[in-house]
Amino acid sequence: MSQYGFLFDLDGVIVDTAKYHFLAWKRLADELDIPFTEQDNERLKGVSRMASLEIILEIGNRTMTEDEKQALCQRKNDWYVEYIKKLEKSELLPGVENFLKQAHAAGIKIALGSASKNSPMILDRLGITELFDAVVDGTRVSRAKPDPEVFVTGAEDLGIDPEYCVVFEDAVAGVQAAHNAGMKAVGIGSPEILGQAELVIPGFANVTVNDLLQKLENV
Ligand code: BG6
Ligand code: MG
Questions:
Q1: Test site for ligand 1: of 8, 16, 36, 49, most ligand atoms within 8 A of the Cβ
Q2: For 10-28, what is each residue's pLDDT tens digit?
Q3: Residues 6, 107: contact at Cβ < 8 Å?
Q4: Does residue 196 register a pLDDT over 80?
Q5: I need a surface site. Which of 40, 131, 191, 194 has the fewest CB within 10 A?
């Protein structure tokens, strides 16, 4: 039995859902006559649904009532869910399923820590729910990363001390959330962007759990 706990962000770490978030937000922005590009979409990564809408409204220099904003979030999510329903196992990011299975087999406790309220459905569609000992999603937390709430809650669920928790994140705010929780962070992406993390890897292809833990012990 390992003493470690692994906490995984979902979008951009396990699966590339950013393209579906973009398609759904783009459809909404088009309806509102607000210009919205893939570059603008970068600002929405790791950001909650309502905060994402607020960024789009800011781009369009528009204001709305709370009720209007809730209705627009619902519309966007209905479209997003239509895409997610068709998600396939082949859309898992390369190597991640093997890495999760290795960690699971090594007795490492695994939690999901994501802002997405659709997390359980996505894990289900990808057929990986049973690899997780705990799921902390947007329905369970109210403070967005870099607040550590999502990872602190995950570590509590796992019963693992933060000092033995490793967070896998593709967003700068997520790396900061890990540090704010007193945990180590592995950045998934480029060192130029995620340089604050203890270790940065481009993805999970050919990464073994043992190698990774050894590298982390040396930082
Ligand atoms: C994050 C995504 O994981 O979840 C964001 O990076 C998204 O783009 C957020 O807005 C909330 O997701 P959802 O599925 O609850 O709208
Ligand atoms: Mg992410």
A1: 49
A2: 999 999 998 999 999 999 9
A3: no
A4: yes
A5: 191
Query: Measuring CA to CA, how many Å separate 62 from each of 27, 40, 107?
Result: 17, 16, 50
pLDDT tens sequence across 120-178: 999 999 999 999 999 999 999 999 999 999 999 999 999 999 999 999 999 999 999 99
Distance 51 CA to ligand 1 centre (A): 10
The pTM assigned to this predicted structure is 0.94
Q: Which amino acid is at 14?
A: I
Burial 140-176 (b: 16+ CB within 10 A, else e): bbeebbbbbbbbbbbbebbebebebbbbbbbbbbbbb
φ and ψ at 195, to 5 degrees?
-55, -20
**Ligand 1 geometric centre to CA of 18 (Å):** 9
Pocket of ligand 1 (CB under 6 A): 10-11, 21, 44-49, 52, 77, 114-118, 138
User: In whole angstroms, what is the distance from residue 138 CA to residue 150 CA?
Assistant: 9
For the chain, list the domains and their CATH numbers. Answer: 5-16+89-217 (3.40.50.1000), 18-84 (1.10.150.240)
